[in-house]
Amino acid sequence: MDQLLAIRAFARVVEAGSFTRAADSLEMPIATLSKQVQALEAHLGVRLLQRTTRRVTVTPEGRDYYEKALRIVHDLEDIDSAFNTASGTPRGHLRIDIGGSTAREVLIPLLPNFVARYPDIRLDLGVSDRAVDMIGDNIDCVIRGGPLSDSSLVARHLGDAEMITCASPHYLKTYGVPAYPQELCNGHRWVSYLSPQNGRAFPFRFMKDKQKLELKAEHRVGVNESNAHLAAAVAGLGIIQTFRYAAAAELQAGRLVEILHDWQPQRYPFHLVYPQNRHLTQRLQAFIAWIKDAFPSRLNG
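The chain above was modelled as a monomer; its predicted structure follows.
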């Protein structure tokens, strides 16, 4: 038995909560992973995992062994990272998750620079507005906008995005151009952005001369993905609030028109987050340092 490989396999099953997800993240056949865990259990003489047809749970002995073994895995990663640092070449697999319009308009246009600077880092980019299981899915970091509610995450502030209120010319011709926010509640149609976490519609928020205003109304259409949300406005379904960078091309082409210029929504914070117990590999450190410099230029562009 390769004990180190077996420890890595066992740790991944604990984190993923599934043999299938663990095998996928390690790029290992599930039969091989299962044999590694079984060999480790035989070597230790204890049951580490309790398996049923539906789920995998960690035994008390397994939880204790995982916490101790994880320190060994991190120590080894530190040793590997030290040698990589000496050679000046961060390498390995980096998994990042990011929202749809932010991936399209901000991160992806910047990535050629990162790829050229770090040719030995392999990137997997998960693009979705939905919340992800960073530990279970073995994701190194997530880039998200909005207030942070999970205290178990480490957050690095990347900048604040300007938001606008807009609609298509056809919609404005049909329903008129509102002169102040309260008009939105009188016969106008909203295309609400629905929280991917709970399905609730985000209210429309405005600010003028430090005066804050929040409006809630029943929407005709709700969308929980940022690119589709923008497309709904272009199609004339109603008024939206979105990021200026997301709507920039549509505004320039005349497919959307900005309204309520004097009532700008508050700027929207963006963060890069990762779990507190995530080992900060050299490749993740390189990505964080790079994106903190590069991201604001596109976020406000």
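Residues 89-160+269-299 form a domain with the D-Maltodextrin-Binding Protein; domain 2 fold (CATH 3.40.190.10).
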